[in-house]
Each structure stands twice: as structure tokens, then as C-alpha cells.
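Quick one, C-alpha cells below:
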């Protein structure tokens, strides 16, 4: 009977340095009259420091490895033909200090940006004017407007980014997530174009 293997490569997987990558970790496999588990356990790459931060596995590198298991297999490819393997190193303590520093820097910078914006548009004078138009009285600190405005500013940011700590308000992606998705897709396209210019370090090259 005809042996057919359907292969759908994943766009990106993340592994630690030193990890052995198997075919079942970078692709979804379905087949007819095949031992799928044996094929899933085929070693396709070993993550090394020499890989840098990314390496690319091409479908053309995988087909000979699969045919070593069973030469009679025919292939049906679905989706992308290359998978990006992102290589991670162990997190160092310096990264946590860097994270705290960047967090404080962004917090201070965004706070100053809001303050400068309100000063630039004379927000306090505007609120004083609105308070006078509503009540007919002049108040140097119109807290009746300033307090709700401050809460509204924070609530508006939460609604805009669709995130309250780890809780999502709804299933729609936030503008930040959309921008990060576009950025990640651009990085993936760049990696696919440039990594293919480098010699590959896949297991089948080591065996040859």
C-alpha cells in the first residue's frame, strides 16, 4: 500500500542551547500506513552556541532524513517550507537588573511625557475654565474634574491596551500586540532570507 506522509512545518520554535530537536517538535505530521512516532523522533538539529540566536531548517534537509527511515514514503507538503529555530541561552542575573532598569526608565519617561503634554496644552487652566463655566465659581484646584480625569486616563490606557496585568479584557488583540506581531513577522522574513546564505549546521550535514 502507498505510504503518504503529510508535513506541515511550524513557523518558529524556541529551544535551549544543547537541546536535540526532533522532527515532531518542528512539524505537524500525519500519515497513511506509517509509523508516525518513529518519524517524529528523527533528530533534525542540535542547538549550539555557534547557531547564534536563530537557525533555519529547510524542508529539503528533512526529506533525506525521513527517507532513511523508510525509502518508500511519498511526501505531501502543507504550508511553509522553512522553520525558524530560535536558540535561547540560560538567563543571567544581569538580565533581571537590566529589566528593572529599563522598567524604571520607561515608567519615568512616560510619566514625564504625560506631564509635559498637560503642561503644553495648559490642562490645568482648561479645567479651571470648565469648572468656572459649570459652577460659576473660580477654583484654583478643581478636584471635581481633576480626580475623575486622572482615573479616566488610567482606565483609558487599560482599555486601549486590553490588558490588566495578566488578565485580558476580551479576545481582541491590542494595538501593541498587533504591532509586535508585524515586527516579529518582519524579523522572521529577514531571518529566512539571510540565514539561507549561511552554511547549515543540521544533523544530516554532520553525518555526511
Amino acid at each position: 500500500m502507498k505510504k503518504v506522509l503529510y508535513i506541515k512545518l511550524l513557523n518558529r520554535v524556541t529551544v535551549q542551547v544543547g537541546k536535540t530537536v526532533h522532527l515532531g517538535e518542528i512539524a505537524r505530521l500525519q500519515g497513511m500506513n506509517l509509523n508516525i512516532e518513529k518519524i517524529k523522533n528523527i533528530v533534525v538539529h542540535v542547538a549550539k552556541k555557534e547557531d547564534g540566536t536563530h537557525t533555519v531548517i529547510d524542508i529539503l534537509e528533512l526529506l533525506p532524513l525521513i527517507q532513511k527511515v523508510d525509502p518508500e514514503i511519498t511526501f505531501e507538503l502543507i504550508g511553509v517550507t522553512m522553520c525558524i529555530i530560535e536558540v535561547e541561552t540560560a538567563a543571567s542575573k544581569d538580565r533581571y537588573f537590566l529589566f528593572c532598569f529599563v522598567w524604571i526608565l520607561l515608567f519615568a519617561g512616560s510619566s514625564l511625557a504625560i506631564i509635559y503634554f498637560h503642561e503644553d496644552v495648559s490642562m490645568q487652566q482648561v479645567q479651571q475654565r470648565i469648572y468656572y463655566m459649570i459652577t460659576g465659581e473660580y477654583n484654583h484646584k478643581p478636584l471635581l474634574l481633576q480626580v475623575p480625569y486622572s482615573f479616566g486616563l488610567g482606565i483609558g490606557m487599560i482599555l486601549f491596551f486590553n490588558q490588566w496585568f495578566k488578565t485580558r479584557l476580551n479576545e481582541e488583540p491590542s494595538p501593541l500586540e498587533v504591532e509586535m506581531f508585524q515586527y516579529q513577522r518582519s524579523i522572521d522574513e529577514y531571518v529566512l532570507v539571510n540565514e539561507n546564505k549561511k552554511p547549515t549546521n543540521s544533523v544530516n550535514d554532520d553525518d555526511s
